[in-house]
Amino acid sequence: MSPKSLVAARRVVLDNGLAVIARPNPATRSVAVHLILPAGSGFDSLDKPGAAAFVSRLLDRGAGGLTAARIAGDFENLGAAFLARTRLDGLDVTLRMLPGHLPFALERLRVIVSAPEFPAAEVEGERARILTDLAERDCDTTARADDLLAESLFPEGHPYHAPIHGTRAGVQALGRDDLVRFHAARCIPRGAVLVIAGQVTAAAAHDLAARHFASWTAPGRGPRQAGDGGAGPAPFPDAPPPAGVRAIIHPIAGKTQADVALGFVPAVRRRGPDLQAALVMNSVLGEFGIGGRLGLEVRENAGLAYYAHSYVWAGLGAGPVVVRAGVATENVVRATRLIRRTLARFLSAGIKPKELADSKQAMASVLPRRFETNAGAAGLLADSEYQGLGFEFPDRVADLIHAVDRHAAEDAARRYVTLDRQVLVVAGADLPAGALD
C-alpha cells in the first residue's frame, strides 16, 4: 500500500457475500461505521412504491426482541449516533461512536438490519409521518421539480421513475407483510458493503465484523458462490432519451419563487469510461466557484436567479446532466431563456483552457477533504465499493481527473448536454401554455 494512499484500507469478503472494509485512523478518537444494503428505492415494486423508505424508517423501531425505546436508549446512553436513510440505489445505515463502544455497536447493528420486527403500531405511526412528509413535498418547489423531472426522464416501470419516498397511493397500500417481504429480499449480506473507519486496527475491525455478521444469511439463500463479491447489484436498465424538447409547468399556489430543473438524455454511467470527463465538463458548466458558467451568467451577471448550477446524476443506472435554478416567479421565462442561451454558447464556443485547469485542480483538491473525517471516509469507500468502482477508486480519481483534456470534456458536453432532447420542469410558477417553448 502506497504511503500516499488516501484510502489506506483493507478489504475482505465474508462467506455470506458481505464486503468489509477497514480503514484505521489512529489520529482520531472515534469510529464511524457505514453499511450500504442493496435495498434502495430503485428496488421498490412498481405497484407499491415507497417500501424501501418505509423499511429504512422502521429498522430501529423494534428488532430481535428489543423495543424501539430500548434501542434508542442504549445508543443515547453510549453517545452513539445512528441514522438509516434510503437512496435510489441503496439503503445506508451509519453509526458514529467512541472506539470502546464499537463491539456493542456492531452487535446491535447486526440485530437492527437482520431482524427488524415491524411492530404494527410503529408501522401505522410511520405511515402517517410519511404521508405528512409527502403532503409537505407537494408544496415544496424544490422537491416537486426534482420528482417531476425524474418522472418525465424515466418512463413508468424504470427504477428511477418514482420518488424515493414513494407515492401517497403506494404508501397507503403497503401493508406490514409487504415490508417484511421487501426486507427479506433486499436487506441481505450479498452485495452489501460495511466500512469501519477510525481508531481501530484493520485486524480488529475485520474480526469484529466476522464475529457479528458472518452468520447472517438471507432466507432461502446459501453461502457465497464463486465469483461473488462486494461489487453491488447489477446496473439498472437504460432509459430512452427524451423525445424532443418538452416543458412541464407545475403551479403551486402562494409561491414567490419557482424551481427550474432541466434534464437531458440519461446516459451518464457511473462505471463509464468517460465519467471523469463528464464531471470535469459539468464543473466548468455549473459547479466551479459560484456555479460555473451558469452561475456567472444567470445569477451574477443577469441577477435572474437565487442559485444556478448543474450536476451529474448517475448511479447503478445511467442518469442525466441536470441544470437547476431558483428563480422569482416573474423572472422564470427570462431565466430559462438565458439558461438555454448559455448552454448553446457553451456547446458552440467550447471550454477555455483556464476553466479546464481550474476545475480539474478544484476537483482533485476536494477529494482529500472527504478523508479528514471518519464518517466522510467511510461513506466514500462504501459508495465506491457498492457502485462497483472498487474501494481503491478514490486513490485513482486524481490521476483520472488530470488526464481529462479539453477534447474529452467537450465531447462529453456534446454527448450529454442534448439541447434537442431535454425536459424542462418549472415548479411553483403559473405560466401560460407555450411560454417556455
Describe the structure.
By secondary structure, the protein is an alpha+beta fold. The protein has two domains: 204 residues, Metalloenzyme, LuxS/M16 peptidase-like (Cytochrome Bc1 Complex, Chain A, domain 1, 2-Layer Sandwich), CATH 3.30.830.10; 184 residues, Cytochrome Bc1 Complex, Chain A, domain 1 (2-Layer Sandwich), CATH 3.30.830. The strands form three sheets. The protein has a six-stranded mixed beta sheet with strand order 1-2-8-3-7-6, with helices on both faces. The protein has a five-stranded mixed beta sheet with strand order 9-13-10-12-11, with helices on both faces. A two-stranded antiparallel ribbon has the order 4-5. Strand 4 and strand 5 form a beta hairpin.
Quick overview:
By secondary structure, the protein is α+β, with helices and mostly antiparallel strands. It has helices at 51-58, 68-78, 102-114, 120-138, 141-153, 168-173, 176-186, 202-213, 275-286, 292-301, 332-349, 353-370, 374-386, 393-402, 406-416, and strands at residues 10-13, 19-24, 31-37, 62-63, 66-67, 81-86, 91-97, 193-198, 245-251, 257-263, 307-312, 321-328, 422-428. The chain is built from 15 helices and 13 strands.
List the helices and strands and how they pair.
Layout: E1 10-13, E2 19-24, E3 31-37, H1 51-58, E4 62-63, E5 66-67, H2 68-78, E6 81-86, E7 91-97, H3 102-114, H4 120-138, H5 141-153, H6 168-173, H7 176-186, E8 193-198, H8 202-213, E9 245-251, E10 257-263, H9 275-286, H10 292-301, E11 307-312, E12 321-328, H11 332-349, H12 353-370, H13 374-386, H14 393-402, H15 406-416, E13 422-428
Parallel strand pairs: 2-8, 9-13
Antiparallel strand pairs: 1-2, 3-7, 3-8, 4-5, 6-7, 10-12, 10-13, 11-12
